[in-house]
Design brief:
The chain has about 230 residues and is an alpha/beta fold.
Length: about 230
């Protein structure tokens, strides 16, 4: 015994790596967050939604992708609050998530209460409010991210895209692709690809960076939500 320090622990030989061998070491760990799929090289793509700063995400895409993101956020320990006018399409997910724990809650449009987000209890607010979502009562803040789902490019989209920290775009029409390209300053090659994207493929971008990601459902996700689809 050492006074005030407890028992002396076991002694082991030290693990030593020569300095010349350090470059050969590689640790397959990326950014912290929710795995949303794989990129063009097959590497895991991660969306860091649990963060101490406000984070706004706008997804122009399908319900399936938004629901997969909600499930995976809940799996990381976040509470998910869904503001929606079509609670029937979210009710099965809310019952299945969390193994009986109320980690996914549903709220009518405009009636979502304060969530009390904190570092120990981060929150993702999913706004599934149609083509013209009203301004939200609960906004992004520390440890509380907001994901707004738009089925197509709407008159409110330019405002949402400009204020978003990250934008996800799934398959859209050529005209919509042109407008999104101007708003997000996308290269011509990316704009041309948007009308041809397959189900489950999303271009995640901001004015500086862009990445195509393929999201594939796990066996449990597919059993609950069905296969990946762009159109609901």
């Amino acid at each position: 015994m050492r006074g005030g320090f407890g028992l002396v622990g076991p002694r082991r030989e030290r693990h030593v790596v020569p300095a010349a061998d350090l470059d050969a070491l590689a640790v397959p760990v990326g950014d912290d967050g929710v795995v949303i799929g794989v990129d063009a090289e097959g590497r895991s793509a991660v969306l860091g939604i649990n963060r101490p700063t406000p984070y706004e995400v706008t997804l122009i895409g399908g319900l399936w992708t938004a629901q997969v993101l909600a499930l995976r956020a809940a799996a990381t320990g976040a509470r998910v609050a869904v503001e929606t006018g079509r609670g029937q399409v979210w009710s099965g997910l809310a019952r299945a998530a969390g193994g009986g724990q109320p980690c996914v809650t549903l709220h009518e449009v405009g009636r979502i209460p304060p969530q009390g987000a904190s570092a120990g209890s981060p929150v993702l607010v999913v706004r599934d409010c149609g083509m013209r979502p009203p301004r939200g009562r609960v906004v992004a803040g520390p440890w509380q991210s907001v994901l707004t789902l738009l089925p197509y490019l709407s008159p409110t989209a330019p405002r949402l895209l400009q204020q978003a920290s990250l934008v996800g775009v799934q398959r859209v029409s050529p005209d919509e692709a042109e407008q999104i390209g101007l708003l997000m300053r996308l290269p011509r090659q990316a704009v041309a690809s948007l009308p041809t994207l397959g189900d489950g493929v999303t271009l995640w971008c901001n004015p500086r960076d862009r990445q195509f990601v393929m999201t594939q459902g796990t066996e449990a996700e597919t059993g609950l939500l069905g296969p990946a689809r762009r159109i609901d």
